[in-house]
Design goal:
Elements: E1 7-14, E2 18-23, H1 34-37, H2 45-54, E3 59-64, H3 72-87, E4 91-96, E5 113-117, H4 123-137, E6 141-145, H5 147-159, E7 164-168, H6 175-181, H7 185-201, E8 205-208, H8 211-220, E9 228-230, H9 237-240, H10 245-255, E10 263-267, H11 276-289, E11 294-298, H12 305-315, E12 321-325, H13 330-336, E13 339-342, H14 351-358, E14 363-366, H15 369-374, E15 382-384, H16 389-401, H17 403-420, H18 423-441
Parallel strand pairs: 1-5, 3-4, 3-6, 4-5, 6-7, 7-8, 8-9, 10-11, 10-13, 11-12, 13-14, 14-15
Antiparallel strand pairs: 1-2
Helix pairs in contact: 3-18, 4-5, 5-7, 10-13, 11-12, 11-16
């Protein structure tokens, strides 16, 4: 596709409409005005002619709750959009339900049209806003990710007579999920009822990021297995960088961590579902065998932050358990770590585990179904029972003390990452899935 045909970016802000359009025009600098460009890239006859001239096929509008910087589903979606945009066979849009324009930098300079509201929206206002976005962007397919986006997006799509599909990125109806999110059983049953209705009447295909997520949806939403396509989410290894002794030393020095201290890393937002309290509770036993072991927790604050801080205060070793907050240098942290500790109660895939695998960091994790799948049943990492701090402590001590075992876990995990979870494999799988959906809905 020629550069003259590729829209650089679009950001539209609703309810007070604001449109910023940039087009790369051959031989000129970017044009930052609808009027001067003479072309409205988010819809209309001019865009249809543009698509035909450039050979662009399916037009897909992705919808997600928000872009907050480091959440796994959000990182995965941005990387997929970048990969699909580079492929050039799709015209892509992204709509969020919360103001997030400052988080769109990774999409700057691409052909992805981005829509953001001017304020947080509940389900009904979000559905109305998304109907306006659909009218603007005129997609062939709406593709939603995460619960609020799944609900509002499918309501808007069915009211707009536009086919919709859903990414299944979690296992939200298992018991551990309810406990992890502190949701009442009654509310969860009501949400599942709505989800089943929308799945039956407003969804043409389901995309699951693991077989575990697919199996969960088939059972809980009463889906036909043939309606679900499994395409794992991937990670761009180049974004993380590559480990080296020099990088390890530099990062440890910056963190104030002794070069020889066993360094444990957890990455995840501070929510009950992430199970970080079990990693904290495991540390006193770990210190009996490894007194200098240090646990770093990287991730934004959340509903379990106070409980986690209280747990550390009770232990009284704030020098050996540290909260780093939201970090953008996860590759650096992984390069310094000896062990990645992941005690989540449930996951759809576990993007942070993929990043550890890509960086060759051995993993000790709780036996959530998706994590068992990612770690190949335990051949690529050590698995323990969910919500079991003593078992987690024992596993951490065993793996720290066994260097050949750590090396074996790391090598197997890196090979599995290369075989199954690279961004390139993920994008290829998404392209094949969209081709199937296009044939199904008649846009191929």
């Amino acid at each position: 596709m020629s550069a003259a045909c590729v829209p650089s970016s679009v950001v539209a802000s609703f309810g007070r409409p604001r449109v910023i359009v940039q087009l790369r025009v051959a031989g000129t600098s970017p044009v930052a005005s609808r009027a001067s460009a003479g072309l409205y890239v988010a819809g209309g006859p001019s865009t249809i002619r543009l698509r035909r001239r450039c050979g662009i096929g399916m037009r897909i509008l992705h919808i997600i709750n928000q872009l907050s910087g480091r959440a796994g589903a959000e990182v995965s979606l941005q990387e997929i959009l970048l990969g699909l945009d580079r492929d050039g066979r799709f015209e892509l849009g992204l709509a969020v339900l919360k103001p997030s324009t400052s988080k769109f930098e990774p999409l700057a300079g691409t052909g992805v049209a981005v829509y953001s509201p001017s304020q947080d929206l509940g389900i009904a206002p979000a559905a109305a806003y998304l109907r306006r976005v659909i009218a603007e962007f005129r997609p062939d397919l709406v593709h939603t990710t995460l619960a609020e986006a799944d609900t509002a997006g499918r309501i808007a799509a069915i009211l707009s007579r536009t086919p919709a599909m859903v990414s299944l990125v979690s296992t939200p109806y298992v018991g551990d999920a309810r406990v992890g999110r502190q949701v009442s059983a009654r509310k969860l049953h009501a949400f599942r009822f709505v989800d089943r209705l929308l799945s039956r009447y407003a969804t043409v295909r389901f995309h699951a990021i693991t077989q575990a997520a697919a199996d969960h949806a088939v059972e809980e939403l009463r889906l036909a297995p043939s309606d679900v396509t499994v395409v794992p989410r991937g990670r761009d290894r180049a974004r993380l960088g590559f480990p080296s002794p020099e990088r390890r030393r530099a990062v440890r020095r910056a963190l104030g961590v002794d070069p020889t201290a066993p360094l444990l890393l957890n990455v995840g937002r501070q929510e009950p579902a992430k199970g970080q309290v079990y990693a904290i509770d495991a540390m006193p036993a770990v210190w009996l065998a490894h007194p200098t072991a240090t646990l770093l927790v990287a991730g934004r604050e959340g509903s379990s932050t106070l409980a986690l801080q209280d747990a550390v205060d009770r232990i009284g070793r704030t020098d050996r358990i540290r909260f780093l907050g939201l970090r953008q240098d996860i590759g650096d942290l992984l390069s310094a770590a000896d062990l990645f500790v992941f005690p989540s109660l449930y996951e759809g895939l576990g993007g942070a585990v993929l990043e550890a695998m890509a960086m060759g960091v051995p993993v000790v994790a709780a036996r959530a179904p998706a994590i068992v799948e990612v770690l190949a049943g335990g051949s690529c990492g050590h698995l323990v029972d969910v919500a079991d701090a003593p078992a987690l402590a024992s596993a951490i001590m065993d793996v720290i003390a066994d260097e050949p075992r750590r090396r074996q876990y790391a090598q197997r995990a890196l090979q599995r990452f290369d075989d199954c979870y690279t961004l390139e494999r993920c994008v290829d799988g998404m392209i094949k899935m969209y081709a199937d959906v296009a044939a199904q809905i008649g846009t191929a």
